[in-house]
User: Fold these one by one.
Assistant:
Number 1:
Amino acid sequence: MTEPTGRRERKKAATRRTIADTALRLFLERGYDEVGIRDVATAADVAVTTVFAHFASKEALVFEQDQDFEHRLARAVAARPPHEPLIPALREEIRAMVRHCSAPAAAPIWQLVDRSPALRGYEESMRLRHAESLAAAIAADPELSRTTTACRTIARFVVDAHSLARGSADPEAAVDEIFRMIDAAWAATDPARAGRAVANR
């Protein structure tokens, strides 16, 4: 997670972290449906309004790094060196995320998510939002020159690669396998390649 700068920002980040850690502990101890926002606020020693100041919903408490992951994907596109290929940069970012989310300590959290329809629905909407954000970052790069459809399709593939690889027996090998297919799909959308194919007919 990106480290905040400034005393006020650090204090806000610490409060957010405390709320998220407290909520997750309660969810794992009692079950997601058995814990309310008021329970979280009481255990974290903050007001209910403070919880909602940091998290828009109860589901968001489980996915505390949601926005950080979204920003990391967009940054992988925008911050890569000039002329560096897109897909390897995204592969490295997804690999790091999968490594984080497939660690043994994360297993109880994903079991919690799998048992809750509300959390599964939130995760799905989160993935769609991440894909749209990534598609916008790809479309904004003048070097990449792809259609809106191509940007959105590749972004969806990349975001889905995370959940597919995370649930596999060998997450890192799965990332590599999935990204070989993504790389081929991205290459197929290259306008220069399409032009050459037309010329050779």
Note: The first helix runs from residue 7 to 30.
Number 2:
Amino acid sequence: MPKQVIHISAKVDAPIDKVWEHYNNPESIKQWNHASDDWHCPSSSNDLRVGGKFKNRMEAKDGSFGFDFEGEYLDIIPLQKISYKMTDDRKVDMSFHEENGYTLILIDFEAEEMNPIDMQKEGWQAILNNFKVFVEQQP
């Protein structure tokens, strides 16, 4: 049975090259990659190439829970597209579109079966919203 695909998006007030750099730079990822203020991303590694892997550590700040969000890149078109497969074989497709100085990010990801669809969508959207705020605050 095919997995349900969830769609999220954000319009970032920044040029596409700045958005691409902050989305893929491990030092930047550690600053924005969390769904709420009681979580953080203490480590990140990113080998941005087809066949390359990424690994971002997500942890509750109180130390009560943590996990590695990781996967392998399937397709990359610089400044346009990233596709990857997570360790549980779910796929994610992202596209980046520059429009009048803004960058539109569209993300489609396959849902997992443990948590409600709304909860997954809200969590991923919260992380993307944190990314938007982070990039827009950078000089």
Note: The mean pLDDT is 97.
Number 3:
Amino acid sequence: MEQMLSGAIAAGWGIAGLFFCRFWRRTGDRFFLWFALSFWLEAVNRIALGLLVAAQEDSPLIYGLRVVSYGFILYAIWYKNRPRS
């Protein structure tokens, strides 16, 4: 049951990534691209958590992927709001 729920969550992350990818293709704004990459990385994170038997929520690999994913979001927000010279 846990693997099935993990797969459903991964599918949701993947669909959210496709949603942002569609906006990126339509507008060309990198903000949406970084968000799409972040959501896809979260989907990979969930898949790895579901497939790896020894993986825990606090294992360095899983936690590291999550930190990189949230870093993409923070970078997108910073890049969008940086002062233009």
Note: The CA atoms of residues 38 and 72 lie 6 Å apart.
Number 4:
Amino acid sequence: MSEFSPHRFCTAPLLDWSDRHCRYMWRLMSKRARLYSEMVTTGAILHGDRERHLQFDTTEQPVALQLGGSDPQELAKCARIAEDWGYTEINLNCGCPSDRVQSGRFGACLMAEPDVVAAGLNAMREAVSIPVTVKHRIGIDDMEDYLGLTRFVEAQAGAGVDTFIVHARKAWLKGLSPKENREIPPLNYEMVYQLKQDYPHLQIVINGGINSLEESLQHLQRVDGVMLGRAAYQTPIILAQVDKQLFGEAKGPDAAHVVEQMLPYIENELQRGQRLNHITRHMLGLFQGLPGARRFRRHLSENAHKKGAGSEVVEKALTLVTQAA
């Protein structure tokens, strides 16, 4: 498996978390990671505040837009819009298990309708020149284990899709909350490895329960790529080691330098009307495990939400860390 796969290391689409402010910070730490947006529904793009949903800083590239939807025409329209905005990939969500998603006929429930998914992916592929990919579970409810998974994958491969991001857990659509669906269904990495073995021509990216780059390297012996979600968010400085450990390139900045590099971005965003805490909420875990981390978190949590709060709040929080160190 080539170390040059564009999906060798990815950050997950995290609803309410992986917004453009978060992705900007992540990009400061890794030049090679492929970043994914939060899931955005086709309805939000076609009928909502398009700029709020699609805006991003060009320094985030390569950045992919994750779409939620099932109507081929709507998906194709949104894919064209996303390409015009400059996204480098469109990813279809077939893994989110929330009730709200099921009622809208998108997310994990679509694994029961592989032909519907294939029609949507094919429509998007015909509408754009950028890659179209799919993120899904290994199964849902009582879907027959590996056979059900291969039926789903083969249908999408038949529509021309060659990159599959596989969350190595089933989703139970009845009886479990979205949070429980991230934790209770057991991980089955072997099923994802088997998928790569049986379909060597496809790019298989593994997701779910991966907490370190050491674990990532183990997975990369069996699949083409890894995707980190909560580990990358809760301990973001892990991303500063990605380029070195997974690509053999220079490592990223330390946490203090990341904060310093965020200051001009914060100033610019505040001038555009953003609130400080909308940015700093993603920075709370930067010093996780280091001296002064609690002081840093507390100062931002207690002050960034205040009216008129500016970058001086972040600078003060940084001094609390350096003093502790």
Note: The chain has two domains: 9-247, 255-324.
